[in-house]
Amino acid sequence: MDYFINLSEFCGNINLSGESAMFFIDEGIICVEKRDNELYIDKKTADDLMFISEIKNELGINDEGVSVVLNLREKIIDYQKMLSTVFDALKTSKSIDELIFLLEKSESFKNILSNLK
């Protein structure tokens, strides 16, 4: 973690309950570091919590619903990466064999395909 922000103070500033924060910690959606009986978060986690707070407050979704939204968002991002890889390979390949070769050697494409199974 680059730098640390006190979790309870941060949640108070973004209108997110401590109970909600603990739910997302338990779900493994956010990571915290414990120091002197206090929980601290890094910048990325703070950004994630701000996004969670926005979803909850703007859409009125409960914690479980936010978890579903976040999982769907992650899948959409994975599909976008996969499509980008395919389009890049289509642009550069001169034959179907070369296209298949480019896709097979692409790490992001392999990772996405393995996650889809």
Structural write-up:
It is a single chain. The protein folds into two domains: 5-60, Orthogonal Bundle (Multidrug-efflux Transporter Regulator, Chain: A, Domain 2), CATH 1.10.1660; 70-116. The chain has a three-stranded antiparallel sheet. The chain is elongated. It has six helices and three strands; from the N terminus they run βααββαααα. The chain has 117 residues and is mainly α. Helix content is 71%, strand content 8%. The two termini are 31 Å apart. The mean pLDDT is 87. α4 (63-92) packs across α6 (107-116).
Shape: elongated
Largest beta sheet: what is the strand line-up? 1-3-2
The residue-averaged pLDDT reads 87
Strand content: 5-15%
Number of strands: 3
Residue share in helix: over 70%
Structural class, by secondary structure, is mainly alpha
| Tally of contiguous helical segments | 6
Largest sheet data: 3 strands, antiparallel
Order of helices and strands: EHHEEHHHH
Distance between the termini: 31 Å
What's the CATH architecture of the largest domain? Orthogonal Bundle
Please name the CATH topology of the largest domain.
Multidrug-efflux Transporter Regulator, Chain: A, Domain 2
Low-confidence stretches: none
Kindly list the characteristics that best describe this protein.
single chain, 117 residues, mainly alpha, Multidrug-efflux Transporter Regulator, Chain: A, Domain 2, 2 domains, three-stranded antiparallel β-sheet, 3 strands, 71% helix, 8% strand
